[in-house]
């Protein structure tokens, strides 16, 4: 009798981890649901969850007048910012849920009206590409815009990794492989070159970037005015919301990539957010949150204004022992490498600004300008 009771207890105890794992996976599958909610005029946000990671996707409306006078009418065009996480058997159908949410958001508001048009998928950096294959198939006329240094991965011509304090691209390569977009072995996928738009320069307004990119980009983005309604500063991975016990907090933080120091990222992010003369109302990090301009400036006010120097300790000690200059003389500029080399922050040249692109509201073509990525 005692042996039977013990076997029952052992059986029940062995079931507990399986039940907990099942509940966790069920919660994860439920958390992939995505619904775009209006956060500001012309700005809709969708949040998903991936075991504590909260990727955020945005839809930005760009209205244009189309047709021949007097039959011209306002038509809603849309820019999708980032493409979320791919589907997986373990963690759920993130990409499928995102595609469904985009279709729902662009549906006609009234019977007889035309649906909204998705004209551009803007990738802030190489990690947020999970639903890109599904989106490209569902919206064959949509273009894909990315920074010129990220674009080779998307079209299937990845460059060789750079070393010696240059931008490291291995992390981006792994992201592409994980998303099924890296053409290795028998896998020959990628963004068609004719649908890819390379963004060059130091940042700024997306329309200005399109003009600088040449005729192809002008045609692809010809409908973009000098500003859009939402006035959103696309931060990518430049900053991220702080994480508390009950989810995302109300603060901002940075996550260094490669050899970039936190202080370097903070200085560059502060220069980006505090810059005067740029018309934006909302700061949109990839990892969640939608911060007003005033709140964002309050949060980064205590961050350093300049990138502190970094001391090469081994070399400094060797020189000091050999009668060389003191250690402080061996200080060098902090490394500004970043594996997220897209439109996300890249604090180059002393952290003078971010590499983010902004979609502004004013007619001056403003937008945060940063270093040449």
Detailed description of the structure:
With 373 residues, this protein is of the alpha/beta class. It has one domain: Ribonuclease Z/Hydroxyacylglutathione hydrolase-like (Metallo-beta-lactamase, Chain A). The protein is 28% helix and 20% strand. It is built from ten helices and 16 strands. A hairpin with an 8-residue loop joins strand 2 and strand 3. It comes from Chlorella variabilis (Green alga).
The CATH topology, please?
Metallo-beta-lactamase, Chain A
Helix/sheet category: alpha/beta
User: Count the helices. How many?
Assistant: 10
Helicity level: 25-40%
Task: Work out the radius of gyration.
Answer: 23 Å
CATH architecture: 4-Layer Sandwich
Spatial separation of the terminal alpha carbons: 73 Å
Order of helices and strands: HEEEEHEHEHHEEHHEEEHEEHEHEE
- CATH superfamily name? Ribonuclease Z/Hydroxyacylglutathione hydrolase-like
Count of separate structural domains: 1
Task: Please provide the count of β strands.
Answer: 16
Beta-strand proportion? 15-25%
The largest sheet is: 7 strands, mixed
| Mean pLDDT value | 64
Q: Strand order, biggest sheet? A: 1-2-3-4-5-6-7
Low-confidence stretches: 161-188, 222-229, 325-373
CATH C-level class: Alpha Beta
Region (Disordered): 316-373
Pfam families: Lactamase_B
Protein name: Metallo-beta-lactamase domain-containing protein
Biased composition (Gly residues): 345-373
